[in-house]
Structure formats: structure tokens, C-alpha cells
Amino acid sequence: MTRLYTLGNPPTTPAAPISSAPDWVQANPARIERALAHALALPGGGWYVADASARITAVPRAITIAGRPLVFWRTPSGRLRAAPEACPHMGASLECARTRGDNLLCPWHGLELGDGPHGRWSPYQVHDDGVLAWVQTDSAGEPATDAPILAPRPGCYVAGVIRVEARCEPADVLANRLDPWHGAHFHPHSFARLQVLEDRGDCLTVRVAYRVLGPLAVEVDATFHCPDPRTIVMTIIDGEGRGSVVETHATPIEPGRCAVIEATLAASDRCGFAVARRLAGLWRGAITRRAARLWVEDVAYAERRYALRGRRPAALRTIPGG
Fold it and tell me: What residues make up the domain containing 57?
């Protein structure tokens, strides 16, 4: 076995794994299903992540969420807007619309649509948190909240966001993240080792060594928890980059298809971090490349889980929300 050398500030507490059993024993399917059931029962407020905030511009863009084709755009003042993608007049796609001030002009007949309803056409509530663009619909039948239910974020960070699509349901994406035991086995290029230190049912604490280059790694303690039924958040609580978070959001597109939008907010308590933020463009590229590489494999995990579930008799399908 290649010797591992750790860099940076290590976790301050000794590692105390909850079990010395092999990872395949600790990754108990029943435990993962219980954690998933707890997450899927959480309130979501009817909010869904559409994409990175920066990727919604003044040019209208169509995104389907929970079976609903929507159009997103920004006003000249930078305000986020979302509405049904089909013009209420004769169904033209508003992704091809021109803008006039805050409003859309239908490309077929010039109908101007804005803040107010027009027949059954009506804009949706949106939320821009500076990193992600959210929209609220009643597709999930959830009691509405005024804003998305966000996990704590660092006050100063460099953010990178990726968006990939998968042939699965949001529950399969959450299940992937609720199984940290696969990390060092399925992603050996990124994780040198991983130990589960605590399992409270609704929150996992792990010690993980992230590979930097070859035998060089950075070791941290991190928690995984779900603030809503379509999100799981990893927060570094000790070690290098303390306070950094990775938010993984699973947004349904249609039955059997979902989008994975993952936001990494990298933080540091080192005195030079403020200077490093000036090179945010370089950081952002490194952040998104690493995340995208992991999700090539994790999409395969989620899609395999979804495919296997579809092959089982209905009486054996015990996964909530699948």
C-alpha cells in the first residue's frame, strides 16, 4: 500500500470510527434506506434549484422542472424571473422571445408578458441566493415557504457550480451521498481513505483524505445532512478549509430524469484567503473540474440504483420517492 502524506491543517480531534468492520458491512442498505426516508419526509417548501445563478442571463432559457417547461431570464436590473415556457396565446416557445424592459415579447405575435398573469399563464416565485437560482412550484404538493430552506453557508467563499443530468430520480442522488462508504473504493482518484466517525441517523460525520497529487492528501472532518427532500450538504467542520460546504441538489425533470446541481463553496480561515479570492476564476475551474469528474461515476451509481429498482417486483420496491 502506498504511504499517504497529509498537507495543511489536520483535524484537531483523534479519529474514532464507529466500526472496524469492512466498508461493505458498514454500508448497510437498510440504514441507507432509513436515512433516505427521513430526508424525503422533510419539508421542501415547493422550491427547486434550476441552475447556477450566473448561468441565468438576460437571454431567455428554457428549463423543465418536475414535468413543467419553464422559461428563466433576468431583467435589465438583474432580477431573476421565471414563467411557463409556452406563450398563452398559441403556445410559442418563450425561450425564443425578445425582451422589452422587464418583459418577454412572444416571437410569434408580439404578445408582451411580464409580472402579471395572462389567462392561465402566470409567473412563478423565484429566489436568487447569489450562487443558485431557485423557482417555487406546487408540483410536489408541499406547503409553501417564503424562501428555500438553506443550510448554513460560509460568509466568505469561492463558489463553483456544475449541472449534470441523470436517468434516475432525486432519491437516487440523495442515496448516493448517504452512502459515504463507497468514496475511497469508487473514487480512488479523489479519496485516499474515508472513515465514518458518527451516525446520528439524520447526520453523518466522516474523516476523509482528499487526494491532492499522488500520495499527497488533505484530511478533514465533514458532516452530511439533508436540509430538504432534494438536497444533501457536506460541511467541513474541522481541518483544512473548515466552513466550506458542498450542496448537492437533485431537481426532477420528468419521471426517470433529474438534474444534479452541485454548488461548492470553498472557504478558509487562513489569513491569505482574501488574497486567494482574487484568483477566484482559477479556483472555480479547479472546483468544477473535480466535481464533474466525481459525478461521472456518481451518476452511474444513481442510474444503476434506479435501473435495478425498476427490475424488482412491486412488492420489493421499498425505496421511498422512487
Answer: 47-136
